[in-house]
Predict the 3D structure of the following.
Amino acid sequence: MNPSEIHERLTSTFGAAVVDAKLDAAQPWIQIAPDKIDQVCQFLAREDDLAFDYLMCLSGVDYNNGTLGVVYHLSSIRHRHKIVLKASCAKDAPHVASVSLIWGTADWHEREAFDLMGIIFDGHPDLRRILLPADWEGHPLRKDYKVQEFYNGMRVPY
Amino acid sequence: MPETRILPTEYVTDPNLRVTSSGKTIRSEEMIINMGPQHPSTHGVLRLELVLDGEIVMDVIPHIGYLHRCFEKHAEHMTNYQQVIPYADRMDYLASMNNDWAYALAVERLMKIEVPERVEYIRIIMAELQRIASHLVALGTFGIDMGAFTPFLWMFRDREKILDLFEMTCGARLLYNYVWVGGVSHDLPSQFVDQAKAFCRYLKPKIKEYNDLLTYNEIFVRRTANVGVLPADVAINYACSGPMLRGSGVNWDLRRDDPYSLYHTLEWEVQVGKGEVGTVGDCWDRFIVKVREMEESLRIIEQALDRLPEGNVQSAIPKRIRPEAGEIYVRTETPRGELGFYIISDGTASPSRVKARGPAFVNLSVISEISKGAMIADLVAIVGSIDIVLGEVDR
């Protein structure tokens, strides 16, 4: 199925939850409302003609304009098609619905995006830091991140 | 004087009370034990929190991040795209060539650079040599996990010859910084083709020796068959890739299914696990897939060496790397599976965001799914068969 057909399926099913799309990009993407992303993904994963069974990558992004984003690179091993989904949220209220119950791989990816980018995935069963220590302050991949001066009595900036 | 009193009823119905074969009532509890972070069988600094019922693993909670070096933050702070490559080298330090290539390919696609044919073949040769070298480490250390020391020494002896080829080409033996955006750092030295062909002739009979010594060894088969079975649907749901996915019988290889470079012009086959000695997707299947992939890699290398055209390996290297604003996700097949780079460019000389999707990170996340109910000794086999490199898990 090509990207514009996928886009059409999503708009006819979810209407206003499909916020934006760029289908002529090198890798076409569709923007979804952050609180509906789990339902859209569920639909993409379960429908027989879509069957997006393989979540290649899930990345947190800081767009440096007060918004954070989550980018989902999906592919289907069965049908060999791909699509990119995006969801964005405000930096001061960074909430995006979790897709970890749809694809097991999203569990660690979402924990990583939470850890490094500070995005809160609503509905994630075990959202805690994964790469940094549990008592670390701040989220380093944010563009306005300031490293803490001391961590447990040790000087951090070198 | 010991206290004598009637036990409250909730104590009698305590689920932790067990009746032994001699009729005695004993109390047993689940126990939490740390395996690692400093433990030889975790292949690096990985801590597994085990919930145990005696010898049986009830749950595994992996704790990672001990080697976290902020690769993605560093990449954003470089003054140009080329400077990220040495950092990419250090992610999966057993497969640096493949990492370099994945990153360089992503930038090349972003800038729409076509590289000369000679460069493509050199990269294929290097990547496949690296795949063999990486698999030799994986198989050898897995043998050690199972108590077989000799195959490890044999495999390291043979890996040494690959490192010699790399050293001859670019001077480095582990972290090469060899594949650059648009080309490679050095052309092949004049004696490289002959020595690489000699190496291919040398390694083929050695693979049979490994099989005789280790792969079909009765003890080894008993330790690995039917252990840590990863069903195909779970493997796909957890986005496992590489030998881990193919070991579960899924015929999927990015070199063929999401083609890049010139792999589609070469003759080779994708190897999958078939459950020959146990169940499809067990530790032995993941092992045999790697052994057979080495043979396929040798086929690819021989064809590429024969076809290697003349040319300038640096002609396509851009003087200034400044991609237009845009984004791209490029995935390649490294020894461990799908290595993807998601790069966002804002039109400046350094990337705005680089996300590395490492295969070992993703493959490791399935561990608690496949090791529940296993014995502790089998958990060692499972961790070994996943073939993790913590440098890439933690980035």
